[in-house]
């Protein structure tokens, strides 16, 4: 599903050039659960942004579903992000004044879907993450774990091919983090491809494959026995 070949990313600031990615090559299959780990400055967030079509590499190739991403127009990239990709962030990124149904419906605004059907789909997704009894609540009436569940429902509402999760447990306590990771494991067992950035080894243990990054390069790749969760 994802193929990277000698991917490089440089950021320039005046005379100074910083190499965030230095020749990354790897592949991720459909229905894999992958964690990307590494210390601050290792390039993991840069790689997540490129994989999620939020940023473009300086050099190298990125093929998504067999298609070279650098050849896509801005409109095509926007369509890919909306149709094929779901994002989950550490800080939830929910709109505070909208109830959780309307938050989950947001990605469907850019589709041809009728509002009633979009609402039904959002309600269905909230049921899938065990929030069917909180539909009229706004985000600040929910716990951190519940808000992250809303964010996951929003990421799922377009039936994306891939979910990207950037430090999804970073703002959660350890008990809630386990609940959120169990939810990701359930989604993976149901066929969802998941790519997760984390700096916590106990979170990475939920993934099938762990890509360790350092200084903009892949240091090593580990495979987990994911049946332990």
From TrEMBL:
The keyword ATP-binding applies. CDD domains: ABC_MJ0796_LolCDE_FtsE (cd03255). Residues 2-229 form the ABC transporter domain. Keywords: ATP-binding, Nucleotide-binding, Transport. It holds the Pfam family ABC_tran. GO terms for molecular function: ATP binding. This is ABC transporter ATP-binding protein. It comes from Gilvimarinus gilvus.
